[in-house]
Task: inverse folding
């Protein structure tokens, strides 16, 4: 029998340790689903206390098994799981002397010895709702912390609903009313009366906003009835009627779809303090200039107005698009944020210099900087420290150079980069204008036209297949070749060269050469091919 020397607690069983190890190794969830309660044979005075064992696979005598009410991490220790079971008043009639947990596969995974506790039945005259909680360390095989708290009482749903409704009623925003008054009325009956904003008898239960009583302390929200009206349950106490209370009106002759606010200052004693309601449907200020009712309007500034007046659509249309600033530089410059939205002319007499784009800021993302070359200076564009330059495609842009009469537009993206998005400089990097400029090379135009060229040395009387630098997309229009060796054979000799398409091939052409009549010479030819 339990005494001052008895130790209580529990631990994972051997099965539980194995299941946990397996779950950790496979990375799969381990579902603890049920709690088991046992009485270890019966009355503690008649049966010895149970002695939990890691090898245990069942309780000495199980009296109850049920799904867990909840399983959650302990707020005090994330490594501890709390298993909770709620016993209703009609469950019991036995001792709780041993506890266990079972996983979803029916494995006996943890066992515990609690202090003996008797769970009575409601029919015994002492029924109670009791919560049983087991605090179990599942991070390792340490002892399981166990606690049974018979003092925990589960709130009824009705009590919770009433408590929530009471707290919601204290909020300023109230449930809408069907009608509102427009003058003082009698606070009783369902009939139409002077001062009412309704033209048909009310229905019992209609919510009415009363705001025009001669004795203003009687204003408020009421529920209509055949007898005397009562204040609505969400506005029937001083705690529920406070400064700033708002309520909308659903229908009525003149006050349908209006919103009213209680402008009486706190503290308010309901029934003693005069209550004043103000119509806030159209806002607290009814302005003519600008006007926000109907189609909002505002006075249009003059065409080049630079004040803080509102920019109307008419104003935007008449001024057109323009740069926020216009500046000129003549040497190496680190631009400030003021350059964003403006155009900077890069001039000066230096042969070359560097322009650094503005530093980054959260408020400048999406901003544009436009540069224009207006001198012979070669201007290299650089990103600020920690940032980079990119192409429209997102590729890295290395050391772009702005020349005379060229423009470049850079946009600050959400990342730490300035992206080249426009201007003639962008054409150099566009696939529509891409090129490989060398002794053998190619260039492309937006129309789809492609021109390719190269130099090749060919032996006399040989036809050679030339692989083009890039394949044409759909067609080869024509090819041609010229020799760079004319005149080397002498006046009585001839030299011919030729080039043609290689059948339907889009990636190769054919070239041949011939010399004579008596001398033979390898030739260096320059060829060109056109297509798309």
Result:
């Amino acid at each position: 029998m339990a005494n001052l020397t008895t130790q209580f607690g529990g631990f994972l069983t051997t099965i539980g340790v194995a299941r946990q190890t397996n779950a950790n190794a496979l990375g799969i969830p381990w579902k603890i689903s049920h709690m088991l309660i046992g009485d270890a044979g019966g009355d503690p005075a008649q049966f010895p206390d149970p002695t939990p064992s890691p090898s245990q696979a069942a309780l000495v005598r199980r009296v109850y098994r049920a799904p867990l009410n909840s399983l959650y991490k302990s707020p005090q220790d994330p490594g501890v799981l709390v298993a909770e079971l709620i016993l209703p008043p009609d469950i019991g009639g036995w001792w709780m002397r041993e506890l266990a947990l079972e996983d979803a596969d029916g494995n006996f995974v943890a066992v515990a010895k609690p202090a003996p506790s008797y769970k009575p039945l409601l029919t015994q005259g002492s029924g109670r709702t009791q919560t049983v909680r087991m605090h179990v360390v599942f991070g390792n095989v340490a002892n399981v912390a166990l606690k049974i708290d018979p003092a925990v009482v589960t709130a009824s749903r009705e009590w919770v609903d009433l408590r929530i409704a009471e707290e919601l009623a204290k909020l300023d925003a109230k449930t809408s009313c069907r009608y509102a008054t427009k003058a003082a009325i009698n606070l009783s009956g369902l009939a139409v009366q002077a001062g009412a904003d309704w033209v048909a008898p009310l229905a019992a239960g209609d919510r009415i906003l009363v705001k025009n009583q001669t004795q203003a302390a009687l204003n408020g929200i009421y529920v209509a009835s055949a007898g005397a009206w009562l204040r609505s349950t969400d506005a029937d106490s001083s705690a529920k009627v406070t400064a700033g209370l708002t309520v909308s009106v659903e229908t009525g002759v003149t006050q349908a779809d209006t919103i009213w606010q209680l402008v009486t200052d706190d503290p308010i004693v309901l029934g003693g303090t005069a209550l004043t309601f103000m119509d806030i449907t159209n806002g607290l200020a009814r302005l003519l200039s600008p006007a926000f009712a109907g189609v909002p309007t505002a006075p249009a500034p003059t065409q080049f107005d630079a004040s803080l007046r509102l920019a109307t659509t008419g104003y935007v249309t008449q001024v057109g698009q323009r740069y926020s600033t216009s500046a000129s530089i003549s040497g190496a410059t680190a631009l400030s944020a003021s350059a964003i939205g403006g155009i900077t002319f890069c001039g000066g007499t230096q042969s070359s210099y560097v322009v650094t784009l503005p530093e980054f800021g959260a408020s400048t993302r999406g901003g544009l900087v436009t540069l224009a070359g207006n001198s012979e200076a070669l201007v290299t564009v650089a990103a600020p420290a920690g940032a980079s330059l990119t192409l429209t495609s997102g590729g890295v842009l290395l050391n772009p150079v702005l020349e005379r009469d060229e423009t470049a537009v850079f946009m600050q993206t959400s990342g730490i980069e300035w992206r080249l998005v426009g201007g003639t400089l962008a054409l150099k990097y566009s696939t529509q204008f891409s090129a490989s400029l060398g002794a053998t090379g190619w260039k492309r135009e937006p129309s789809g036209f492609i021109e390719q060229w190269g130099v090749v040395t060919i032996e006399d009387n040989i036809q050679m297949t030339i692989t083009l630098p890039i394949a044409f997309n759909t067609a080869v229009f024509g090819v041609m070749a010229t020799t760079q060796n004319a005149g080397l054979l002498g006046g009585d000799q001839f030299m011919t060269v030729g080039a043609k398409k290689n059948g339907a091939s889009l990636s190769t052409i054919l070239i041949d050469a011939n010399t004579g009549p008596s001398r033979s010479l390898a030739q260096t030819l320059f060829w060109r091919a056109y297509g798309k």
Q: What stands out?
A: Helices lie at 14-26, 157-168, 313-319, 424-427.
